[in-house]
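Weekly modeling sync, notes
Attendees: AB, CL, MP (scribe)

Item 1: holo prediction request
CL wants a bound-state model with 6-O-phosphono-beta-D-fructofuranose before deciding which constructs to order. AB pointed out that an apo prediction alone won't tell us much about the pocket. Agreed to run with the ligand included and paste results into these notes for async review.

Input as submitted:
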Amino acid sequence: MTAAPTDGAPFVVVANRLPVDRTVSPDGTIDWRTSPGGLVTALEPVMRAKGGAWVGWHGAPDETVEEFEHDGFTVVPVPLSAQEVNEYYEGFSNATLWPLYHDSVAFPEFHREWWDSYQLVNQRFAQRAAEVAGPGATVWVQDYQLHLVPTMLRELRPDLKIGFFLHIPFPPVELFHQIPWRRQLLGGLMGADLVGFQVPGGAQNFLRLARRHAPEKVTVKGSEITLGDGRVAVAKAFPISIDTDGFRELAESDEVKAEARQLREDLGNPKVIFLGVDRLDYTKGLRQRIRAMGELFAEGKLDPSEAVLLQVATPSRERVEEYKRLRDDIDLLVGRINSEVGGVGRSAIVYRHASFPRHTMAAMYSIADVMVVTPLRDGMNLVAKEYVACHGSDDGALVLSEFAGAALELKQAYLVNPYDLNGMKETLMQAATDGPRVRRRRMSALRRQVTEHTIDRWAQNFLDTLDEVARAHG
Ligand code: ADP
Ligand code: F6P
């Protein structure tokens, strides 16, 4: 057990990533950059509003960094050695759980030393959270990298209210069964009072698994799991969202409007701009999307003097084999398509492997006539919601994979199965050529959805439910 610090934080987020990454340039200059991915996009506004502490890794190996204040909350860096980055982060988190949880679209690897490292690092995160949380504090643990933290933390600090939210899909029973450490992973989550998932299917998968593979005898009734000691853990869906007003205001600002005009001009003022925005990840369906767009150009259905695909991809997990392969494949595919279609002046596909500041993202969203979001599997996909938020005037069209969590909410998008190339090509053309009334009707329904369901509401909903569960069963 760890003693509760009397001056500890009343609210603590624990995530593998901090909101900012520490980078050191070759001349030794230290910089802090916004971390990649949806988790940070979603939780940063929550922390700015609530304050408290954010416990996480600062993105660089073999460095111990002191706590510091950032945007109204305390940042608490957890160190990882180079070996732990390799085994816990790149290995067990991103080469075992990540592919398996995404329908095994890449082959998950199982290594016992990765699992050892995962346990060790989870214990370190739990220990750090126990040291910074005030008496009776709420601690909100995030995502698949930290499955074991809720139970470890409860052992250290039984006074805490503990929530867990999984940002990625929770897999069907048949896939989860394969994991040699399935009992321990399930048991880890059961330490939380409330376990949140993106969609109801994830919560149902978890409850089914709890019934069969919990490390102890449990009773499952509805969304409640009663454990041996009488404690109750509840599993439910809480679809995550974005800071909708923040994105809309950004897109409507004079600076972003000017940037958008410039961007359109830089692209050669095409009639139709298709846009893709992703972390460079094999779950995002980039190969399929680019192939479909390439065929539309090659078949003359899209004219490269009038249409362009702007694809930006944030570098991600660059030392993991599957990600290296993906990067090479996309470079090759884009190069081949651009060498085969179009005139000499302009490329059919403008591809940038880079991260951009938020105002540039908003400018890109604003000029896109068709947003193309085609993951093979995705917990939610915030890019789809950001695009809608940036189109206050109801222009634009969203092409969205059926396999993104967002498809359950954004039903008026142009839905596609990314494995069906012909179907995807037809829908891409439909989205680009439908009349303004149809497109407006669809976009206005989408806009209503993201205006009503914001990140504030999501956080409030989760934390209110956590309070209720802890009060009723704690
Ligand atoms: P994931 O969490 O798997 O990365 P999401 O779509 O939920 O997927 O979230 C991605 C987040 O990263 C969004 O907030 C998006 O704006 C941001 N993002 C994606 N690509 C880029 C990029 N090239 N530059 C800057 N931000 C990006
Ligand atoms: O939301 C999924 C997620 O994996 C987050 O947990 C993570 O922070 C983000 O995407 C980006 O990935 P990474 O932290 O591995 O760069």
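Recorded for review: The mean pLDDT is 95.
Action items: CL to compare against the apo run; MP to circulate these notes.
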